[in-house]
């Protein structure tokens, strides 16, 4: 699908989409919890759908309720694959594959794990090194998909490298908790994306599952005490700060916006977008469950995105509208996302007349304060966050643009074009 976006002023009020980071974790927690969980405000993104499909295949019983919530009867630690070929499909979701592989390893039976698109080339060799230490037999395609695992995983004291992604640790924490790890420690070297681990620990707590003690993100200790997680849990999926970042930046560069359903006390990494928007000079009001942003004179800013890498695309859309050179730290790991995001942002924003330098771990965005279209055809590179950054950039451009492979947004935020259209953006399927 291609979408065209015309220069547009933004104003109005909308409600945030559900966070796929929270929804996928809720699915995993509901699977490994014995007994019932009711998940309200469930996400509808492709990654969320993949997670629901996976937990069903690993033994959860899912019922859609009349009010739109989902009831999940969990499998506890008795993970028994029930698909015809013992295969789970993770779609394009990095979190799903990295979280559900250790959970699937709780099963005594072999589970095959596949995915599609960019997921086929994202690194999974972590599992080749770690799972055998936990008594799991693992086979991968030279560190990539497809994988197959045969457990059951037995929690052990281990040391892992957290410098590529926090998602592997999220998976191990979930699996250790489900396996009732007792007097066991996961030691982590150089953990990145730390707030995502806070979110994982929060979900373990909310679902009554066994929680480890977090020693400064350097080690996670599972005590010997037993946990009873059989009580029914009701969990509401919170609004998505990662998608919100695009909406709030749209308000900051092209008018004003009120976004409801995002929480100031959220553990989500991407709520840090507020700091960047404030530093750039827009007017911002943060309430407990909503944020208002209004455009003002915008100037370049400095930002460390090491722990919130998904903010690069909206930050670039913001920086393009700020006079001066914006410096964003944390570039290195963008290579391993749905596209090589440093390069794709550089290529696509060059079409807006914006020059981007990539230096080791630092991105420099040379903002001119105006966006002059040099090439009308942008390409998402099948990356949802590049499609959304292009659409936000187009709001203040001097000409209409068209975005190829614009349906990439379905990975995290299927409502995105509808939401910006409701705020006044002229968006059309081309
Ligand atoms: O746990 C999560 O929900 C996520 C963690 C982050 O990945 P890394 O830990 O690989 O940075 C983030 O980029 C991804 O979109 C979602
Ligand atoms: C990188 C992302 O997700 P995941 O790693 O879960 O595929 C993302 O949402 O930008």
From TrEMBL:
The keyword Amino-acid biosynthesis belongs to this UniProt entry's keyword annotation: yes
Entry's localization field: Cytoplasm
Superkingdom, taxonomy of origin: Bacteria
PANTHER family tied to this protein: AROM/DEHYDROQUINATE SYNTHASE (PTHR21090), PENTAFUNCTIONAL AROM POLYPEPTIDE (PTHR21090:SF5)
Family affiliation: Belongs to the EPSP synthase family.
Record keywords, A-Z: Amino-acid biosynthesis, Aromatic amino acid biosynthesis, Cytoplasm, Transferase
Top EC class for this record: transferase
Binding site for 3-phosphoshikimate: 20-21, 25, 165-167, 193, 310, 337
Coiled coil: none
Catalytic residues of the enzyme: 310
Domain Enolpyruvate transferase: 7-418
Provenance organism: Polluticaenibacter yanchengensis
Pfam families membership: EPSP_synthase
Lineage of source species: Bacteria, Pseudomonadati, Bacteroidota, Chitinophagia, Chitinophagales
Gene of this entry: aroA
Catalysed transformations (reactions): 3-phosphoshikimate + phosphoenolpyruvate = 5-O-(1-carboxyvinyl)-3-phosphoshikimate + phosphate
EC id: 2.5.1.19
One of the record's GO molecular function terms: 3-phosphoshikimate 1-carboxyvinyltransferase activity
Amino-acid biosynthesis keyword on record: yes
The name this protein goes by in its record: 3-phosphoshikimate 1-carboxyvinyltransferase
Annotated positions binding phosphoenolpyruvate: 20, 94, 122, 167, 341, 385, 411
Subunit relationships: Monomer.
InterPro entries: Enolpyruvate_Tfrase_dom, Enolpyruvate_Tfrase_sf, EPSP_synthase, RNA3'P_cycl/enolpyr_Trfase_a/b
Pathway: Metabolic intermediate biosynthesis; chorismate biosynthesis; chorismate from D-erythrose 4-phosphate and phosphoenolpyruvate: step 6/7
Main function: Catalyzes the transfer of the enolpyruvyl moiety of phosphoenolpyruvate (PEP) to the 5-hydroxyl of shikimate-3-phosphate (S3P) to produce enolpyruvyl shikimate-3-phosphate and inorganic phosphate.
UniProt cross-references to Gene3D superfamilies, sorted A to Z: Enolpyruvate transferase domain (3.65.10.10)
